[in-house]
Amino acid sequence: MLRSLIIFLALLALAACDSSLPQxxxxxxxxxxxxxxxxxxPPGDLDAEQLxxxxxxxxxxxxxxxxxxxxxxxxxxFNTDRSIDWIPVSAEFCVLLERSQEVSxxxxxxxxxTIGPLVNLWGFGPDNQIAAPPSAADIAAAQGRxxxxxxxxxxxxxxxxxxxxxxxxxxxxxxxxxxxxxIAEMLDQQGFENYLVEVGGELRVKGQNRDNKNWAxxxxxxxxxxxxxxxxxxxxxxxxxxxxxxxxxxEHEGQRFSHTIDARTGRxxxxxxxxxxxxxxxxxxxxxxxxxLLVLGPDAGPALAEQLQIAAYxxxxxxxxxQEITTTEFDTLGIx
Length: 336
Known about the structure:
Shape: globular
Largest sheet: 9 strands, antiparallel
Number of domains: 2
Strand order of the largest sheet: 1-18-17-16-11-8-7-3-2
CATH topology of the largest domain: T-fold
CATH architecture of the largest domain: Roll
Low-confidence stretches: 1-17
Radius of gyration: 20 Å
Number of helices: 8
Distance between the termini: 15 Å
Strand content: 25-35%
């Protein structure tokens, strides 16, 4: 389904109606980003401070597991290990790699968990930002260290092996969504029925919002100057993740270079697909797949999403406005 949209200014006037249901909102910072946890109609005896600590514990555990910004995370230790033998790892770390590999394989490398050298080269990693694009020789050298097929996992034995000692894994395209999934699992275990969890823009909702309706999730317009909604989906018991080229970028000689890098070319994407939103039970899968579909572009992205029966929503720039492309699975959800 393809149709042309004019920016939806009416959405700016959406107002929340009065509600008799109370809501507890917890927010803070972790994993280098922000988080929000909203509990609708929390129990009267709920210890909000303890719940906050439980959320932070999940996030801190993931930071210790998969951060590229700290030297003592399990991921950082793995990346500095130059062995090409099987390396024992934690069960959770192995599963993170294995599931990321699955998305890498099904997208033929449009999502690649070994893209770290290119991310760093283009100034979007833990190293300093750059002022100009890297040389073709530097890009080729970094590409030589990239390739999801150079990584093997045996999670039954909790073992991982690099086929290249210089392989560098970057789980940032999976980690925020995984954090959402982990927090949601913790809330489920504690018996919460109606909640929203958001980490760095990736989110999961369960049950109903404070107005006893499905959660209304805004999809941001692809603008570098303002944060305004382009559309709204009403969902429950699912996760929503968006990947876009309009927030994290640098400019050089009038050209914009996005943080979304195609491992197959070694360069930021340059097509007209501005953003992709994916809706799936798993926030981690939605997070990774939104990245992959964005890399694939306005033609191959929707085609793969349709083939895999993914609920996906694409915003494509043209000369006069923004076009939206939706998959069959997405169309069943309804959009405002």
